[in-house]
Design goal:
It contains 15 helices and 13 strands. The chain is an alpha/beta fold. Helix 5 packs antiparallel against helix 7. Bound molecules: guanosine-5'-diphosphate.
Length: 458
Amino acid sequence: MNTQETIAAIATGGSNSGIGIIRISGEEAVAVADRIYRSPKRKCLKEVESHTVHYGYIMEKDEILDEVLVLVMRGPSTYTGEDTVEIDCHGGMLVMERILRAVIRNGARLAQPGEFSKRAFLNGKMDLSKAEAVMDLIQAKNEYALKSSVSQLRGALYDKITGARQEILHEIAFIEAALDDPEHISLDHYPEKLGAKLRKLEEDLIKLKDSFQNGRMIREGIRTVIVGKPNAGKSSLLNLLLGEERAIVTDVAGTTRDILEENMNLSGISLNIVDTAGIRTTEDQVEKIGVSKARAYARDADLIIYVVDSSTSLDESDEEIIELIRERKALVLLNKTDLDAVTTEEELEKRVGHPIIPISAKEKTGVENLEKALKDMFFHGEVSFNDQVYITNVRHQRAVEEALDSLKLVEQSVRDQMPEDFYSIDLRNACDALGAITGDTVGEDLVNEIFSKFCMGK
Ligand code: GDP
């Protein structure tokens, strides 16, 4: 690894800011930096101690490009495991680009997206699940997503997966030892014991697999669709939640024809809200498209928010929506509580069988109850990261599913009283599938693909 080319990139964001960082990693990192660094005290970076900071200038020929601080960190105690230099310069895009160009002219090459993290992985500084957590951390949209990637970065998922793999490896080793040395190691009653162990392991993996739904919602937001008859106040609710005038609010029934999608944060929980045309039976072609889209969105949604206008009575369109939300995660909002009630809370509750949250989008009341209901519904009141490991990544979910499939095959072999050497193959497959999460058993192509999704300079 250490003989690879030295790479460099701007590690801070792609816009002007107070401070910018140019990162250089590889065998030549210090030498490259030395060629463009001038110290007022005539220091030479090659001679300084590791993990020290140095004041000076970045020079190109005789021109000063910037006044900087240079961090010199020798491997293996660095992010990539290689010699690393970070140049802290002023954060203007032009300055950063000029320094980067100077670095490249003096012996480094431009890093590909994710290449620093890829080197960290290849040099054994972090497993794949941690590397992916770095990317999630950078992209985290909300507080919970951030917490879950920090927990993954600290190795929660790694520990869980490694633990499961070790258990499986232990069984493989035992079977192989027994087959090699049948005189001393007996396999009597082993299949029953193995069966019991597998069931326990499967239970754990199923929990992990199921955490994906929550994990996805934490990371990407809860797919939410707002439904209700025209004029119920769906756009007003959306505007209230977003705190700005985005959807068009009018009092002509059926104006919200286009589907609007908004990502928003409600006390730390991300909602991807779709505001749709009111669901109602209609002859109007344009409106019909909106309605059918609304139905399609409702089918795929994690959550349906049903808005009812309390100043009108329930009719057959409401019946249709009530049918739609049966057996679904839904919040029913009784809107316009500032007006005289035609439809009461009790009446609505009786019809829908969900608890009712009274609100007034106009007077901006009832939002706290909506937030509370949301937390109760999705995260049992509190999102906890201490005792549960979440899977937030489709790749990880597939790997767990594969491992489960293989373990089921082992169980089947146990039931069918197959010879013991049959077990090893499927046990090994399960082990390999889990190894793909931590990166112990992945090929180069997959590694390249994963890291190519990283941002520049990471
Ligand atoms: P949508 O068709 O379901 O999106 O409904 P809109 O959000 O466009 O609202 C329809 C009408 O109801 C508008 O005139 C709103 O100002 C009004 N409206 C919405 N929410 C309330 C509310 O809580 N109280 C009152 N009095 N009017 C509301």
